[in-house]
Design goal:
Layout: H1 5-22, H2 24-29, H3 36-58, H4 62-66, H5 71-96, H6 100-120, H7 128-148, H8 153-170, H9 176-200, H10 205-208, H11 211-218, H12 220-235, H13 240-246, H14 249-261, H15 269-295
Length: 300
């Protein structure tokens, strides 16, 4: 039985979004000569510019004006903005300091971090199999910590910052486009101020760079907006279970890039830790898929 056209298009949109996110190391590696903070600042500035163009084309500004009487909403987004900035900065630093594998690990364990936060923060009751998944992932992290002699802080920082970010956005009233616009708008004064300070100190990589490098930095805006819009279009058209499986496209691509293109070490005892985490993810995904199949009768 063929998939309905809307579902098929939704799966394609979501797959493209996760593929773009998974290939982000290729982009950030091209900017290795630029400091992570400057890359982050340009990402904020150019993302806001792209969002402004989209909102202008859609004539969709009323929600922004209405926020002047909703300080609690703005405060919630200020918190999510801080988490998003921390996530972006950690990821950029990791990629450009040859920690692509650690970055991929963060997004592999993120779904299980979200499940754990749902239990600890929202009071949701986890099913036994979900607890098994969380324990397996925790064992994998513990094994990697023991082998390396230190916590995999990059992976944990990415997983928990994005986990708490998702937790805040889960109960936020704005959509993906509006939410990212507000977040970049809140970061914009800091980002622009930092870029201005770099220029005043003659330390701006953007001003000293070639035209090609300047265009690369400006490309951060479209590269931030495009996968977000594709993800939003896909998420509305396909079941959450399929979306959950597709999310592993991104860290898998990052892992492959780290191992095969950037030759980061991935062998021996380190693989065992990843395997424990992957088994936890497989158990979690399979259990969710089977529950969905039991609850959803097959269409005629």
């Amino acid at each position: 039985m063929s998939m309905p056209a809307s579902n098929r298009n939704g799966a394609i949109f979501a797959f493209l979004a996760y593929t773009i996110w998974g290939l982000f190391p290729l982009y950030f590696k091209l900017l290795k000569a630029v400091s992570p903070m400057e890359i982050l600042s340009h990402r904020v500035v150019w993302s806001l510019a792209v969002m402004a163009v989209i909102l202008l084309a859609k004539r969709h500004w009323a929600w922004l004006w209405a926020l002047r009487t909703q300080p609690r909403v703005v405060g919630r987004y200020a918190a999510s903005t801080a988490l998003l900035a921390a996530n972006w900065l950690t990821y950029i630093w990791a990629v450009n300091h040859d920690h692509v594998l650690d970055a991929s690990l963060g997004y592999f364990i993120n779904p299980l971090v979200v499940v754990m936060l749902a239990a600890l923060v929202l009071g949701e009751r986890l099913r036994p199999v979900q607890w098994v998944s969380v324990v397996l992932a925790g064992a994998g992290v513990a094994w990697l910590t023991w082998q390396a002699g230190t916590l995999p802080w990059i992976a944990l920082a990415l997983a928990f910052s994005f986990g708490f970010y998702g937790l805040l956005r889960k109960t936020s009233p704005l959509g993906a486009l509006e939410g990212l616009t507000l977040e970049t708008l809140l970061l914009f004064p800091l980002a622009l101020g930092y870029l201005g300070w770099l220029a005043s100190q003659h330390q701006s990589a953007f001003l000293a760079a070639s035209a090609g490098a300047q265009w690369l930095l400006a490309l951060a805006g479209p590269l931030t907006a495009l996968p977000l819009l594709l993800f939003g279009a896909g998420a509305r058209r396909i079941p959450l279970s399929l979306l959950g499986l597709l999310q592993y496209v991104s860290p898998t691509l990052q892992l492959l890039l780290g191992v095969w293109l950037y030759n980061e070490p991935f062998a021996g005892p380190k693989v065992a830790g990843y395997v424990l985490i992957w088994v936890g993810l497989a158990v979690y995904s399979a259990e969710g898929w089977m529950r969905l199949r039991r609850r959803t009768p097959l269409a005629a």
